[in-house]
Amino acid sequence: MKKYNQLKVYSKFLTLLIIILTVFLIILVGYAIYSLYDNYTADQSAEELLAQFEDNYDQDIVENPSEGEPQQEPDNENIPSGEGNSNTTNSPTKKPTTSSNGGTSSSYNIGTYYKGYRVIGIISIPKLGIQYPIFDVDNTETLRVGTAAIYPSNVDKALNSPGNVVIAGHNYRNKRMFSKLYTLKNGDSIYITNMNNVKLEYKVYNNYTAGANDFDYATRKTDGYTEISLTTCTNDASTRTIVWARAE
Description:
Order of helices and strands: HEEEEEEHEHEEEHEE
Strand content: 25-35%
Shape: elongated
Helix content: 25-40%
Number of strands: 12
Radius of gyration: 25 Å
Structural class: alpha+beta
Low-confidence stretches: 61-105
Strand order of the largest sheet: 5-6-7-8-11-12-10-9
């Protein structure tokens, strides 16, 4: 009888254990499926934003028109005049073209938004196989589908201009976003396109690990060079991977 009761207790314990393990497995599989779906939808949103950004350039902005001749206005009266150069696939720093009224014509992105947040550029890193929009705000929504320029304050105008711009991205511990940032080597290329349709190639020249609260890399002097600093969390946000790159 005693042995029977022991077997009965053991059987109940085993049944309970199996139920707990089954529930845990279901939760684990469900989370994995949700993560895959969330990553897929985020990447789809990113691709749509990239396409919209490339389609949203106004080609009719004219800078520095000749005296006495009216300046041709863009469709959106709130768009500031561009100060950059038009780019082509083979020449990322092509000079602006001269317009018929004596000014130089440039293109400016008339507005690409995701849930109310503005896209100010595109970052592409061929070695990592990634290309994402750059937002001017970093939060849960923007960093889910892209990266964010977090320094300086006027990031939309600072991008691809002399000085240092800091671009942050998540580390998902896979191949998405900045997860493989630590693998970049000196000489690797990073491409940045800004709102003036200027595309510059940057060459990596420094890659290191910094403390979570270190921000000296952002405020560093660049001696007039156009540079970017890429940053992402590592070791459960206790440290950060920092990459410096300079425009060619």
